[in-house]
Design a protein that fits this description.
The protein is mainly beta. It is 0% helix and 53% strand. The chain starts with a strand and ends with a strand.
Length: 118
């Protein structure tokens, strides 16, 4: 069974770049057909899809976040990473990594709280 675990950056200051890593165990991030995804949930709001990296390494981004978002991977460590630049307090959220197959997110990390504050 695949397991995902987000890193814990904790408090991030405005204008900084948020960096999160998802470590995957029990399955390879290069396995065909899967997408490795970043999702967030601001307080009191719904889930927001941020972007994904396919098993091929191709990346996809939300249009609203594309200018600030970068997703990469380290296949030797079976990890994928989110970088979100120029953060503001509006980027405060619980951030999740997840695996998707088609339209289904079938495995999730526990989530990590990120607070943007000076």
């Amino acid at each position: 069974q695949v397991q995902l675990q987000e890193s814990d950056p904790g408090l991030v200051k405005p204008s900084q770049t948020l960096s999160l890593t998802c470590t995957v165990s029990g399955g390879s991030i290069t396995t065909n057909l899967y997408y490795w995804t970043w999702i967030r949930q601001p307080p009191g709001k719904g889930l927001e899809w941020m972007g994904a990296i396919a098993s091929s390494g191709i990346t996809y981004y939300s249009p609203t976040l594309k200018s600030r978002t970068s997703i990469s991977r380290d296949t030797s460590k079976n990890q994928f990473t989110l970088q979100l630049s120029s953060v503001t307090p509006e980027d405060t959220a619980v951030y999740y990594c997840a695996r998707s197959l088609g339209n289904t997110w079938d495995s999730w990390g526990r989530g990590t709280q990120v607070t943007v504050s000076s």
